[in-house]
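Lab channel / #folding
Pinned by the channel admin:
"Please post every new chain as: sequence first, then the structure tokens as a reply. Keep commentary short and put observations after the output so the thread stays searchable."

First post following the new format, from NK:
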Amino acid sequence: MAEVLATIGLRLSVEKTRITHIDEGLDFLGWRIRRQRKRGTNIQHIYTYPAKKAVLAITRKVKMICWRDLSQPLAALIYRLNPVLRGWCSHFRPGVSSAAFNYLRATVWRQVFAWLRRKHRGVTWKRLRRLYCAGGWWPADGEVKLFNPAAVRTTRYRFRGNSIPSPWPTTP
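Reply from TO:
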């Protein structure tokens, strides 16, 4: 395969190229693809869910955004966080991602509240919640509300086989 690809100017990465069994799983474009037994049955299914590396990358990015300037208002922080969170969630929406979305929600909440605690030293939790959560627990600054990754509904692609219409004509 390497010789065929070399003729067109491409090469295989030795550390990324390997042959593995589907039961062991593989990481591809941030997805973990693996065959597992469906809970409650003996039927094996292929599951795709966010890879640990992808989850770690988004949590690092959230932490980097939240460790910036404390002089800005909460709305500015939310404006920087929301597109990152929406993009990541929309990429991983078509898989088994609910657990990853809930983990990301907890991480985002913890980081934003740590930012608020650093910004307002000596202020109680009750006062912070009154100022930035309208009495609830999810941060917002006026009309600007922090995106909640756990609220994203996952979708699944169902194999439709021959019911997918062909874009090419069938007549010769």
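NK: Strands lie at 26-28, 31-37, 44-50, 140-141, 144-145.
TO: also worth noting, The longest strand covers residues 31-37.
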